[in-house]
Amino acid sequence: MLVPTEGARLVPQLGRYCGERVAARRAAVMRGLREVATALQEILREVELQEPRVISSLAEVNGRYEGLHVLSPTEFEAILYLNQMGEFNFVDDGSFPGSAVLKLSDGRKRSMSLWVEFITASGYLSARKMRARLQTLVTAAVEKAGNGVKVVSDNSEVKLRIRDKFTVQLIPAFKCSGVWPRSAAHWPTPHIPWPNPQHVVEVKAEGFDLVSREGHRGSGGLEADAWVMAFTDAEQRLLQGGSRRKCLSFLKALRDRHLALVGDPVPARVLTALILHECEKHPSESEWVEAALGERLLGVMLQLITCLQCRRCPHYFLPGINLIKAPPAALEAAARQAWKLARDLLTNPKGIEKL
Predict the structure, then answer these.
(1) Phi, psi at residue 44, to the nearest 5°?
(2) Do 275 and 251 touch, CB atoms closer than 8 A?
(3) Where are the beta strands (DSSP E) in the chain?
(4) Domain around 107
(5) How far is the C-alpha of 31 from the C-alpha of 11, rounded, in Å?
(6) 335: Cα separation from own chain's centroid
(7) Is residue 4 very low, low, confident or very high in pLDDT (cuts 50, 70, 90)?
(8) Model confidence over 245-299: pLDDT tens digits?
(9) How crowded is residue 280: how many other Cβ atoms within 10 Å of its Cβ?
(10) Looking at the DSSP assignment, which residues form a beta bridge with residue 61?
């Protein structure tokens, strides 16, 4: 078949590309992370001093910054975990796809709660009120620090602009370890041998996060008080082994150079989801060895083109959620560019060095 044959021919060029472009991107990301982390630490110390219920998870461990997620070399997310979710019931009944609400446990008085000022009259812990409180704290901390950091106030999200080079979104979150949401109860897909049972146990033990951010669909009424389910750590655990991470790194480098278009039609989370879907299509570890990297890369690229044309990319754990949000014109431009890249890879493997 055409794709496997051409995929195999890509492998030597992919090795050189990864050694040059991907390595250069990784170095740029690390420089950005260090600069962002240095600026954030002073601000977050002040936030934690004023609000002890917020715990910054920003820490360097084995050369990686835990609590900082990379969206692109200049865009990051910082997760701020919150203390003590135990007094609330986690309600995941499908009312708000991709989100859940936290309701004060029966018998608990609102006035006695640690989070009293964030609880609605109906007894729900409001993600919207939590963001508003964080916005106030961060704004005060930025004014006090005066270290080249500015608050970006274009919506209800808490965003910072650091030295006019980097954008960081600060996200309040609860860590939900050892539990698995009902919305994702269908996973893993039956009759597919990937991931193996032990891996599934590890991923579900990792759990997920409940994060305060604008929802998958607009925000109004109770939906604005709901918490979005995020599976970043679970996704990273699934990418372990074989050439999965290398495939993602290659796609991110390709995206930054050719698909970082106006409207952000190809965000990093779409690439992650496509690789996880590709893992189900090719469940054997023998299909993720270095020699098969070209085939897997082309498979994901063709998936990406289809998603852009259909204007839909399902979330890996929550397939009812569409990860593609860009306007139609941006998606059409991205689909044309992705097809050009895929065609170049298929017809001229040696040309990869020019990408």
Answers:
(1) -70, -30
(2) yes
(3) 54-56, 59-61, 64-66, 68-72, 75-82, 88-91, 99-104, 149-152, 158-162, 166-176, 208-211, 227-230
(4) 2-354
(5) 29
(6) 22
(7) very low
(8) 999 999 999 999 999 999 999 999 999 999 999 999 999 999 999 888 888 999 9
(9) 14
(10) 64
| Number of structural domains found in the chain | 1
Q: What is the CATH number of the domain that holds 159?
A: 3.30.460.90
CA dihedral of 112, 117, 119, 120, whole degrees rounded to 10: 120
Side-chain-side CA neighbours of 22 within 13 Å: the count stands at: 16
If phi > 0 it is left, if psi is from -120 to 50 it is alpha, else beta; for residue 331 that is: alpha
Residue 112 in contact with residue 229, Cβ under 8 Å? no
Burial 292-318 (b: 16+ CB within 10 A, else e): bbbbbbbbbbbbbbebbeebebbbbbb
Task: Give the length of the chain.
Answer: 355
Q: What are phi and psi of 351, to 5 degrees?
A: -75, -5
Residues ≥6 apart with Cβ < 8 Å to 196:
none
Distance of CA 326 to the CA centre of its chain: 16
Helices 328-347 and 2-17 cross at an angle (nearest 10°) of 90
The identity of residue 174, as a single letter, is: F
